[in-house]
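Hi R.,

Here are the chain sequences for the assembly we discussed:
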Amino acid sequence: MSGRARSVALIVGAVVVVGLAALFASARAGRTESLADRAHEIAAGLRCPVCLNLSVADSPSRLAGEMRSEIATRLRAGESPERIRAFFIDRYGEWILLEPPRRGLNWIPWAVPVVALAAGVAIWIAVIRRPETGLQEPG
Amino acid sequence: MSTDAPSTTEEVAETEGTGAEPGRRRSRTRTIAIVLAPLVLFALLLASGLGKDPRALPSELIGKPAPGFSLPRLDTDGTISSKDLAGQVVVVNFWASWCLPCRQEHDDLRAAWDRYRERGVVVLGVLFEDTPEGAMSFRQELGGDWPIADDPGSKTAIAYGVFGVPETFVIAPDGTVAAKTTGAVTYDWLTDEIEAALRKGNVE
Amino acid sequence: MPALVGTISLALALALALYGATAAIVGVRTGRPRVLESARTAAYSLLALVVVANLAMLAALLANDFSLTYVSLNSSRATPTFFKVLALWSADEGSLLLWNLVLAGYLAAVAFRFRRSRPETFPWALAVMFGVSAFYLLLVLGPTTPFATLATAPADGRGPLPLLQNHPLMAAHPPMLYLGFIGFTVPFAFAIAALITGRVSDAWMRITRRWTIAAWIFLTIGLTLGALWSYSVLGWGGYWAWDPVENVALLPWLMGTAFLHSVMVQERRGMLKIWNLSLIVGTFALTVLGTFLTRGSILASVHTFAESIVGPLYLVFLTIVLLGGFGLIAWRRESLLGEATFDTPLSRESVFLGNNVLLLVLTFTVLVGTIYPLLAEAVTNRKVSVGSPFFNRNTAPVALLLLFLMGIGPLLPWRAASLSAVLRRLQVPLWVAAAVAALLAIAGAGAAAVVVFGLAAFVAAATISEMVRGVRAQRRAHGVSVGAATRAAVSRNHRLYGGLVVHLGLIVAVVGVSWAALSDRSSEVSAARGEIVHAQGYDLRFDGLSARDEPQRRVLVANLTVLDPESGDVVVRLHPSLNLYPASSEPIGTPSIRIGTPFNGMVDLYASLVTVENGSRATFRFFVNPGIGLLWVGGLVMALGGVVAAWPGRPKAAGVPGTEPTSERREEVHV
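And here is the predicted structure of the full complex:
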């Protein structure tokens, strides 16, 4: 069985290399966030009111540009991201957030993907193991 | 090649399928019911979406103090601020010269302005994402003499949660937002809301 | 006149659709082949009538016949001829005409294809297709008919929506999508026919296999073109916004892809029959849902063409499809139980099942995210949004898992695999992945890049190794050149090699997507004429504006020169523009793109003009987008792979399901 053992060793080795590379890469990345980055992060979570379904960060519209500068101004003045988000929610409603806050009914979109994946794995296991009863096909 | 070769499985399945005993018929019905129930619910959910305008957002500001502003006038020199207008009913109309419904509502606004200007009501047009030249040529073409102002940086529009034009807010004499509508206003809506705001002001 | 011609042809077509459905059913149940024949002929006549209706609308558009409401709203005298033709499908009502045309085309094609060989399922399938046609004809004749007329014709029309006449890509995107969506009607019809007649073994799948692949190919092209349009026309620098309309086009593609894989399991092992029937009913239902959501004005999105009241009609039809399809499956449940089992998790069938499960998880996630705002509003009466952050975060991990399965699937044979054989095949791809990962880490890439590109390298290497294996087997068996061996290998198994090419295309696209996503570099800069600003590693010089007047719009072009900061050489001159249309709204921007090629590092330089002040100062958005070009190449390769997969090959042994074709068995031996 040394052939199989060797294969296993080689494969494990390859996976280890990949894992180490990833660790190495993540350890090296330690960026401090500039104001522009933080503003971009907030803007990316807000929905542009004017052009449908784009974030304030992405939207080419003029209003989005003005909202971006509003965000930057407030960050410079020392406001926290939550305060800035609340500012927009107070005026536009929760609709302005690109993801619904995790409250009440809004747990559904958060939970569904995880539940779906878990259910999917369970289904896969169940179907793999199930002995299918039925009439045998000749041949 | 593409003909169906009937196989023994299918033939047996067909005869078996038709002659179900009552027990199997009941479980088949239950299977069908279980499968179909979520589909029916889904259809009902989709149906609930019909008849709802996807773009009509209720305003967050109704009942809350109207955001203050101080804006440069377009029709004359100087600025107009919310402080100047305190104690009056203010109809804040966000508009732009490139906006088609703004043309449609212009006459309704003018009619309301003419009717109520002596009764402590101010119509204020706030320009949205437009140039002063565009605004003035719109004015020249369609008329109207209520105050209009520019909104540099759209700060007022953002403060009022505007996401398109036209949008119109009615502010009561106590400074709270009494009503809001998106899209072209009608004379009837304006008179209804202005009257209600005036009544509120009189009661206090 | 065109309105009259159009309406009458459509009404006659509707009558024919109803007749055809009835005749097909009557003909087969009472055993009268002449009645069935008449149904077939009805299909040809239906196509002719729908063509006439489309030509009538085209004539009205070209002749500036503004007495038709549709023409007055979507065209104008100033509109160039090319865009007048496009106006046929650029708005809601007109696109319904195109939809009916494509559907009638498929119906006639099915009638023609099976004119001599008549499977038992054919009459019922024809009836189902007639029924679907009848629904869409009813829609186009109904409240939002494109042939509505105005009492007094205006002198000129409003013209198309500016966004829709900015770019010739509009030409190909909807027809490709429609050819894809509507193509799934064919396997659906035959599946329903199989359920009704009880002929539920593989025949219905085998008959419609090429039709399904063709629909998939068109849908892939349509989606790629949509992304290309979003990128090169909309000017926001991205290509996919998880907009509800984009999502509903993606859903049938996801489920259709799952279906294409799991039918292979049924063909070889006789398993997953209920699964496959449910998948095709679901895929077809998703195409109906897609058109419902984009026209019923339920969800606000980029594609809101018009408010229309056809929503309830769609809803009824969708309900009939779902209840009918799943009801029939439940009814036939006993005859659908499979004949075999999964031998082990380590087999191609199990991986295909895993592929299906993951694709369905993706479908479900995207569907829930798209529909959730509706649910929330129905229950709480407040609006919420579900946008890109949600979708990106929830689809990325599943997509990566799918990629992994895509890599190992072709490495595993059908039925059981010996562990040693699998391990041996895994080695080279895994070490390629390790090498790529190590190189990237050393070069300073982030952890996400290392993992994603390592995985992509693994899948690419695994896929290529499978192709090489087959070619080598041919060479060893017949001692021919590489070219001849490749041709022989492919012609023995179009499906396998086509599939492998599709996988390669997908990997290329994934690399492009990930590369672009991982290096998010954009800036908004403002410059006066002649001024140089620094952004994203380049020097940008605003060289002024020029204006150009076209019949239907005024174009303001900004000249932006991109310079290499060190040498001062001109890298490229970009010309983003703002288009001002008289009839409506704000100016629409057109971006200017320097396309990335392998010679410039696959990096797109992308500029869009945001605003202009006083003619001497302008604000731009400047993007450095690496890898975007790979997305288009990948889409093209996927489509080509589909063509290879569908290519007619040697006739397989006449249909006893459950046996493997001899060519495959031979390949399996050469491990």
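Chain C touches chain A through 83 residues (CB under 8 Å). The two ends of chain C are 69 Å apart (CA to CA).

Let me know if anything looks off.

Best,
T.
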